[in-house]
Each structure stands twice: as structure tokens, then as C-alpha cells.
DNA sequence: TAACAAGCGTTATAATATAACAATTATGTA
DNA sequence: TACATAATTGTTATATTATAACGCTTGTTA
């Protein structure tokens, strides 16, 4: 699985590596406290890096959690089509990579005449382990 | 079929009516300033009402905007399956009511063994008018 | 009518995010 | 090279969104 980090700036690189090492989605201020030892001191530095990384498709924002995960999908050049499953109990979040789903949603048209360029889908439920 | 607002408390009723009258999704603090004249003075009063109304399915939260809209879908007893289109330019937000879509997503299963109970889907793009 | 759940009002504060500005670094191109 | 310019950085301050905690009141129901 290929990772994208070639043209990243110093702060972008630090933030991305922090997110990649995490096993859970990270919140901005949690990232901030992790990277203070690397010389990143203030929120705007983190938020700017996050914004850029989202643009690049290197990470995704879980909107309902205000948290960030790295993109595991090598086909994901930009964050135009994202889907996640979120366990309500253990909070485990998994990116859903299902070509039928993404094809279905990418081609979806409602009756308002709107041209969709991007979507984000968040499923909630109980994961395999928490169901027991 | 019971009307959704019959059993609402005073604050819940005020907040719901404010959202219903609005033509756009409202943010919590915008609601707060609208309802000060009706005796609601502090954020927790608004947030409590919003939480309950979301639970009841009377309103939905647009996660990527931190804003609330009333549910236009009479079948929507609780907010278990929601989809919206969001215009990137004019910010117009429309609830998508499409039974094929909701059936497809409600029955969707990925390969992680997770049981989905709820989803929220947000499409972004340009609405008919802004496309021109 | 006692007991309990739900709701209320209030103060304070936590958590999330951005504005604004000056300085620095990277990149393209004449 | 040298200049323009776009991107990035560091910093302070502040805006925005959301919740904790506490005691009181109201509504429900056994």
C-alpha cells in the first residue's frame, strides 16, 4: 500500500506521521500535544497542516467526531468519496473501501439537478466485537 | 400517527419552531440569539433541546456544518438514515429523500461484520442555480 | 402523595477552530 | 543569477461550538 508524502512541508509531514502512527482517529488538540516536542506550538500550525492533508487526500476528517484518520486507500488521490463505519460503543472507526458502494454513490443523482463532486458517508453501529 | 411536537417541552418547542421557520440550517448560537426574547438565555438550554429533537428525529444535524435543519420527511420517526446535498457555493442544504438510496444504504453490508443501525450521508457540489 | 424522571436556569469552563500579521522558505522563470 | 511570487511558518489573540455541574421545578405514575 503506497503512501503519499513526497511534497509535504515539515509541519505537514510531522502531523501526517503522527496520525499514521495512531491506532485511532486523532483530534486536533491531541495532535498538537503530541507534536509539541517537535516544535509545533500553536493550533493554527496543526490546523493548517490538517487542511492541506485533507485537500491532498492523505487524511480524512470524521465529521461527526471532529477527528482525523489517515487514508488507507491507495486509490484515494483526493478525498472526494469517503465512507466510514463507526462503532458506537468502542468508537473504532474503519474506512469502508467498497467499489460497488463508491460507484453507486459517485453516480447517484437526485431530482434537484445538483451535480455532486464529493460525498462523505458515516455509518454507526456495533462492531463485530462489541455486538457480542 | 402522532404529531411530533405534541409531547415537546417548552424549550424544545421554541427551538423546533425557530428551526422550522428558518430557510437555512441554523447554528446553535444563532438559535440562541433568536430565542433570547422568549426567555432562553444560555447555551445549555439550546443544546439540550437540540439533543432531544435530534433523538426524536424532528431535526437533523448537518455534521460538516454544525448546523441543524428540521426533518421534512414524515416517515422519519428517528434520525437513522439521513442524506443531504450541500451546495459549496450558496450553502443551500437539501435533505435527500430517495427510497432507492435509503434502501441501498440501510441494507449495505461491508466485510467487517459490523451491524449498521444508522447512517449519515452528505453530498457536496454545486446546485442547479450555482452551476450556471 | 411519594418517588422518580425529565426538564429548567444558571455559572463557569472545556473543546474546537480561525483571524491577522510579520517573517521565512521554496519555486518558477527571465 | 536574481527577482517575483506563492507557500509555509511562528505567534498572539480571539471566535465559535459544546459541555460540566449544581440546585430547583415540573410532570408522571404507582
How is this fold's topology laid out?
2 copies of one chain form a homodimer.
Chain A (H helix, E strand, L loop, with lengths): L9 H12 L6 H8 L7 H14 L2 E4 L4 E4 L10 E7 L5 E3 L3 H8 L8 E12 L1 H4 L1
Parallel strand pairs in A: 3-5
Antiparallel strand pairs in A: 1-2, 3-4
Helix pairs in contact in A: 1-3, 2-3
The first copy, chain A, binds a DNA duplex (30 and 30 nucleotides) through α1 and α3.
Question: How would you describe this structure to a colleague?
Answer:
The structure is a homodimer of 132-residue chains. With 132 residues, the first copy, chain A, is of the alpha+beta class. Chain A is built from five helices and five strands; from the N terminus they run H-H-H-E-E-E-E-H-E-H. The longest helix of chain A has 14 residues, at 43-56. The first copy, chain A, is globular, with a radius of gyration of 16 Å. Chain A starts with 9 loop residues before the first helix and ends with a helix. Mean pLDDT of chain A is 90; it is low at 1-5. Chains A and B meet through helix 4 and strand 5 of A and helix 4 and strand 5 of B. Chain A binds a DNA duplex (30 and 30 nucleotides) through residues 9-12, 27-29, 39-45, 47-48, 52, 66.
In short:
The structure is a homodimer of 132-residue chains. Chain A has 132 residues and is of the alpha+beta class.
Amino acid at each position: 500500500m503506497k503512501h503519499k508524502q513526497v511534497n509535504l512541508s515539515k509541519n505537514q509531514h510531522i502531523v501526517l506521521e503522527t496520525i499514521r502512527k495512531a491506532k485511532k482517529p486523532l483530534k486536533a488538540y491531541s495532535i498538537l500535544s503530541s507534536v509539541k516536542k517537535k516544535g509545533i506550538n500553536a493550533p493554527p500550525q496543526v490546523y493548517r497542516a490538517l487542511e492541506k492533508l485533507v485537500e491532498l487526500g492523505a487524511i480524512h476528517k470524521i465529521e461527526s467526531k471532529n477527528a482525523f484518520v489517515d487514508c488507507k486507500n491507495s486509490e484515494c488521490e483526493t478525498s472526494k468519496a469517503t465512507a466510514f463505519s463507526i462503532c458506537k460503543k468502542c468508537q473504532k472507526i474503519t474506512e469502508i473501501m467498497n467499489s460497488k458502494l463508491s460507484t453507486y454513490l459517485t453516480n447517484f443523482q437526485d431530482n434537484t439537478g445538483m451535480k455532486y463532486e464529493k460525498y462523505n458517508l458515516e455509518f454507526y453501529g456495533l462492531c463485530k466485537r462489541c455486538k457480542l
